[in-house]
Amino acid sequence: MFKVLLVDDEPNVRQGIKMMIPWDEIDCEVIGEADDGDDGLNKIMTLQPDIVIADIKMPGKTGIEMTEAAKALGFKGKVLILSGYSDFSYAKTAIALGVENFILKPVDEDELIEAIKTAGKKIKSEREHRYKQEIGREYLNEQLVKGLFAGDPIHVAAAVDEYDFPSYCAAIVCSDGSHPEQSADYNTVRRFYDALNNVDIVSVDISGALGILFKGWKYADVMMSLEKLRKELSPEAFISCGCNVSSPAEICVSYSEAADFYRKRFIFHHCGVASTEVFKKSRTAEDIDFADRIYAYMEINDTEKLNGVLDRFMESMLTADNTPEKAKISCITMLMDVRSQMSRSAADKKPENMISDDFVNEISDMHSLSRMVEAIRTKLTDISDACFGKTTKSTMERVVQYIRANYNRELRLEMLAGIFGYNSAYLGKVFHQYTGDNFNNYLDEIRISEAKRLLAMDEYRVYEVAEMVGYSNINYFHNKFKKYVGMSPLSYKKQFGGGKDE
Q1: Is residue 393 within 8 Å of 407, Cβ to Cβ?
Q2: Which domain-ending residue is among 220, 239, 274?
Q3: 387-415: pLDDT as tens digits
Q4: Phi (first) and psi of residue 352, to 5 degrees
Q5: 264 contacts 363 by C-beta, under 8 angstroms
């Protein structure tokens, strides 16, 4: 139904038009009236009618002036001007302004009805045209987003010209394996993001899945919105999220990470939203402890202690409240933590090829906990032998080796004592005899030495260097550095690295 506004300074004229026109029959309704050009302009911009029927001569603005002002403010509706014979000279001006029709007074009922019908037909035609244009734009945008997910150079080039956002992030929402349009979760996702800006939703080449592209969102806001969405979806639905990236060319990286989490959903389905950050937070202290100890024994190639900690790991899962799925997740989580540690401290060993996705998938299909652990035991033992080799080093040599390989992590004498099977007080005494220094000073000197090297490179900020060498507190790092070097980290950076103020 088309909305009509009547603008005339004569109340009897407005009332006559309201009475003579069968509004319902021509699919129209009168939504308002105005008694002069100024009031008419206000009503036009407030009510946004489809059709305005206005007198040409009124107090304040004339019908022509009112139309001109409304068009300048963006009004797209149709205007019908009522005029006497003496005002017909205005017709040319009215037509130039886009006035739909110029109707002479006294108004002929049939003529006005026909003019309103004609205006309505044009409005309908224009709406259909805009709809087709919008559908076309949606299709082109969907193809663009799909191309960006795939890393297609042509679509990346197009996005570089079209997008101007500081960040991008891709996510995947998967329901029950059916086509997205047939999934109960499909409309929920669409509805959830419909009112939000800079979010594109497309079907992707994953059965029953939708891809979401966030443009210009902070990563924390992305995760918050996905967590809220997850609560509205069915229990079997799965959401994964990639990292935040800074350019259209990197969107494929974010999507690839989300897709990787999707492929490993048997690990991450217990999370609200599968992502690196959430995965890290989801680990228990026990999982972290086992992974640390396992990798420590791999690094020093101590097969006996490695087998012992794996035995205790399996025993820890043999509880009454555990389930096969929970046990499987624990095994995979521990294995991924070990791979992550290898990636940080033994990148030259190509850990991605040693603990491969194929191996992870292989053990995930096993139905026996003992078979899973035995397969992991064999794999980790082989990796330890291949990467770190058999050694005849003394225990203190191994301790020093471990400290130098892991100085950038949280290290305590008590933790080392647990790994190497010593009383902490005894280990501290033997360590001092072997190195000539106590444990804390020895660790600080290694860290400060590495910090000096990184600062001289002039590639990192002071706080970044602090984190890279194992100091989570910047003030503590500043005090330690000044103690050992005699100047602040920033002063050292300026003197030896040419660093600028931060």
Answers
A1: no
A2: 274
A3: 776 655 667 887 888 888 888 888 888 88
A4: -65, -25
A5: no
Strand 28-34 to strand 2-7: parallel, antiparallel, or no bridges (unpaired)?
A: parallel
Tell me the H-state helices in 196-323: 219-232, 251-263, 265-268, 276-282, 285-299, 303-317
The strand order across the sheet containing 209-215 reads: 199-203, 209-215, 168-174, 238-241
Q: Provide CB contacts within 8 A for 105, sequence distance 6+.
A: 82, 83, 84
pTM: 0.40
Query: Tokens 């979806």 identify what position?
Result: 233
Amino acid occupying residue 454: L
Which of 392, 408, 436 finishes a domain? 392
pLDDT per residue as tens digits for the range 74-133: 898 999 988 876 566 666 566 666 677 888 888 889 999 999 999 999 998 888 877 676
Q: Which two tokens stand for residue 164?
A: 């101007």
Residue whose tokens read 């229990």: 235
356 shares its domain with 415: no
Buried b (16+ CB within 10 A) or exposed e, 128-157: eeeeeeeeeeeeeeeebbbbbbeebeebbe
